[in-house]
Amino acid sequence: MNIKPLADRVVIKMVEAEETTKSGIILTSSAKEKPQIAEVVSVGPGGIVDGKEVVMTVKKGDKVITSKYSGTEIKDGDIEYIIVRQGDILAIVD
After folding, report:
1. Coil vs helix vs strand at 45
2. If you write DSSP's letter for every residue of 57-72 in order, what string do you get?
């Protein structure tokens, strides 16, 4: 499936969280926090959204930090994507 976001939307794929802590403790799936770092898969064109000009500042391949529990989750086979507004992206990670 090829997902092409509209307006100020961004398609992201969450990056797997660490399964062990820094001290070497292995975490069960229920103890892990929902990851907030994601990779940008596709970016909408921006434009006029809610009467304001939106310029897209993220690009495909960027690693970003998103708001917890934001966006709409979709699934393509075994891969899960989330569609978020650019405003739900808090930072770009270098």
Report:
1. coil
2. ---TT-EEEE-TT-SE
Q: What is the pLDDT of residues 38-81, one digit of tens each?
A: 999 999 999 998 899 999 999 999 999 998 888 999 999 999 99
Reduced to 3 states (helix: H, G, I; strand: E, B; else coil), residue 86 is helix
Cβ(12)–Cβ(73) below 8 Å: no
Query: 48 is written with which tokens?
Result: 């006029």
CB atoms within 10 A of CB 69: 10
| Rg of the chain in Å (alpha carbons) | 15
Question: What's the mean pLDDT when you consider all of the chain?
Answer: 87
12 Ramachandran zone, left/alpha/beta (phi>0; psi -120 to 50): beta
Q: Model pTM?
A: 0.80
Q: Is 88 helix (H, G, I), strand (E, B) or coil?
A: helix
Could you give phi then psi for residue 75, rounded to 5 degrees?
-125, 135
Tell me if 39 sits within 8 A of 10, measured CB to CB: no
